[in-house]
# Entry
Amino acid sequence: RLREIPATAYYPLLEDESKPVESQSLPSSASNHDMTSSAALPLVIREKDIEYQFHRIILYERLLTAYPFKRPYIWREARIDIPPLVRAYVWAALLEVEGDIEGAYNSVDKETPTTTDRQIEVDIPRCHQYHELLSSPAAHTKFKRILKAWIISNPHYVYWQGLDSLCAPFLALSFNSEALAFACLSAFIPKYLHKFFLRDNSPVIQEYLAVFSHLIAFHDPELSNHLDGIGFIPDLYAIPWFLTMYAHVFPLHKIVHLWDTLLLGNSSFPLCIGVAILQQLRDRLLSFGFNECILLFSDMPEIDIERCVQDSIKIFCSTPKSATYRQHARPVKPKAAEDRPNLSYYSIDYHDLPQTDLSMEPIPLEELKGEKCPRISAEDLIELGELAGAAYSRSPTKKRQNSKPMILIVDVRLYEDYRRGTLQGSINIPFQTAFSPEGELNPCPAVQALNARRNQVIVVVGNRGRNAANFANELVRLCYARVCVLHKGIDVFRTTGLITVPPADI
# Structure
């Protein structure tokens, strides 16, 4: 298979100055003139294609040799796929693992007995023991050393069951390098599971589950209403998902493909994976009652991981960044000594973006749990509605000149308040008179406009009271999708100059 490959294939061109980075394609070969056609095949087929893997491995080896300077290129190639033979090193690059990892690992005392040793020894023999490597005595020893090293290195955290499942993919990939597995685990947890391993992690997990519930309602209100109606809340099934980033519920051969994409997203991407899983099981869930749902998730049913990955990407890209805001997410990363280019708008956490008066702020947990819809920041509203003009857009998506805004703003204040000033393009449906005694929206021109644009993101705007959230909750009950509430109300726009007097005929 490799006989006709030219010698130049061993030294692929990493940069083509005549083309922008985004448009540079995969290398060609004698038997396959454009590797892009192979890249379109299912992942399991690509991983068994010898020639395709040859080109990918050669390319990655050159990029990894130049890490961290070529990290943006590694990230770009990882969006296509990651060859199994170099996956451990690519994951480390995506997690920004650098420095003397061997020295750091060797400096940790992994031999002195600790209070968690007994629990670790109980958990390890139950962790992915179908896997030939991880079921070996050598793996059990490595498992224990890595877990002890992490616990000792993070004295503010405690050992929770599930940490062994998090460690398993890294150990399986870096079996001959405990230091690399430890370094990856140490970089992974702060990004995706910040504060999850505190002794009292209840506020952190409860906030995470509340945001997850909002995301379900945002993308699939019918399913959200059904699950809420039968009392099947995320607390009953989703905690093992998020505490282990799905490593406890899927076999390793699925986890590596899932994490290949997970590592490209920000800390909110796991929430989108959860929604994608529910949507894949949607028909069954809608027909099940509480007991059937409990039985269904007691042993995770078969999930098409490739479809799950693609669905989660769509969900992630169609969700306003601030809609997944969490006050317990990872704080702002310290700036590196050298300025590195951003890999992607979508891989940046909301906390890492510049914060202003228009940004999100912490929301009390009880208030968060009392709402069915996510909140979005004034910044996102300006961005999605292009209220400040396309020139001020932060989004990487190039919009057509004649494209319509992706949002519909529904102002639920009294008509008198609405007439004094509102946001451009908004419609007015006063909350006090919006619904009939039967709970349906009262017909009016504004409701007709709302129904005509149900495929857009519906942003409910009000004062800082509860009317906007209550109106949004009612829209979810009526199965309106993509409903969210403006955080801090319309008053947040008072100093922006974006509030205008609506035309008289609206």
User: Anything to note?
Assistant: The chain has a mean pLDDT of 87. The chain has four domains: 7-94, 101-192, 202-244+251-324, 355-395+402-500. Residues 101-192 form a domain with the Helicase, Ruva Protein; domain 3 fold (CATH 1.10.8.270). The radius of gyration is 25 Å.
